[in-house]
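Input sequence (93 aa), recorded before submission:
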Amino acid sequence: MSQVARRIVRDLHDEPHLEGRRITVEFIKMQVEDRGLEPRTVADRHDVDVADVYRALTYYHDHPEEMRAVERQREAAARDHEHLTTDPDALRR
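Predicted structure, token format:
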């Protein structure tokens, strides 16, 4: 497990994440709230303190406008780079 509690920072692709890690607030929220995983499971799988998982969830819910903006940025980036992906079904034709 991590040695110290981590803060939420925005120094990686301008998206909130656990300090010193590439684990984003959005990722943790998706794992716990969308996929239904227990916070302890997420912590164990990603070698972080369970407090970090709760800290990320708290941050997500304390900053709704910021998190909506992050989601819009992700969607826009996906649209902007859609032409770079390969549809596996298209390869079979």
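Checked by second reader. The beta strands are 8-9, 17-18.
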